[in-house]
Write a structure and sequence with these properties.
232 residues; Alpha-Beta Plaits
Length: 232
């Protein structure tokens, strides 16, 4: 990175060199090959999508890694016509809440993870698989499930003990939904209306909703009862 050049400029310069054919090209990804049948995701659904590093190893080792991933995610969303309602980048995995209008989730995630893996390995002079298996996805089938997901994702660093408040972790959708940062990759038009018609009051209600979960997460941390998931 040259003097005076920001992380965002460096990441976007790297991403701009990637070739996109308009058909979600499948980059030769550094992802473990798993012999499974193709997934046929129906259009019009919201999915909780997660992906973890091979053998639970770190996939984000610094802020430039995270900035590059978000730049690639932005490009994938634009080209695949997705919407991202919430996200959280941890150290060895990430979470996305995606709205899919067309059955492009498998192709889009393969391109996203593949291009990021190539960039990561090239920068750090690594070889081999960065991600384990293929991504995991779960359909969101109710409004209550969707609401809880918008709180669950930004509370991941709190449950992990990285911080005590989601606003302290810049690599999630919390700041955007709370009005503390530009939306960036986040579409706020689905989440905030669930908390009120007025944008300012909706943001405050969202913050209160998340803070209620934050207090429970801190209590679970103290008691050592934080629920474990397949990502742990």
């Amino acid at each position: 990175m040259s003097r005076g050049q920001s992380l965002q400029q460096t990441a976007h310069a790297s991403v701009s060199k990637l070739r996109w054919t308009g058909r979600l090209p499948l980059a030769p990804a550094c992802i473990c090959p798993v012999p499974r049948s193709a997934r046929n995701h129906v259009a019009g659904g919201i999915f909780h999508v997660t992906s973890r590093g091979n053998r639970s190893s770190d996939i984000f080792v610094d802020n430039l890694c995270r900035t590059r991933f978000l730049s690639l995610l932005t490009l994938t969303i634009e080209r695949a016509n997705w919407k991202c309602f919430s996200y959280c980048l941890m150290t060895n995995h990430f979470h996305l809440a995606l709205d899919i209008d067309h059955p492009t989730l498998s192709a889009g995630m393969h391109w996203l993870n593949g291009c990021y893996a190539q960039s990561f390995n090239r920068r750090h002079q690594f070889k081999g698989h960065l991600f384990e298996e293929r991504f995991h996805s779960e359909p969101i089938e109710s409004e209550s499930h969707f609401l809880e997901l918008t709180r669950y994702l930004p509370l991941n660093p709190v449950r992990a003990g990285i911080c005590d408040h989601p606003g302290e972790w810049p690599w999630s959708s919390y700041r955007a939904l709370a009005g503390r940062a530009d939306p960036g990759v986040i579409s706020t038009d689905r989440v905030l209306p669930l908390f009120g018609r007025n944008p300012d009051s909706a943001r405050r209600a969202y913050e209160a909703f998340v803070d209620d979960g934050r207090r429970r997460a801190l209590s679970e941390r103290v008691r050592g009862t934080v629920p474990r998931t397949w990502l742990d």
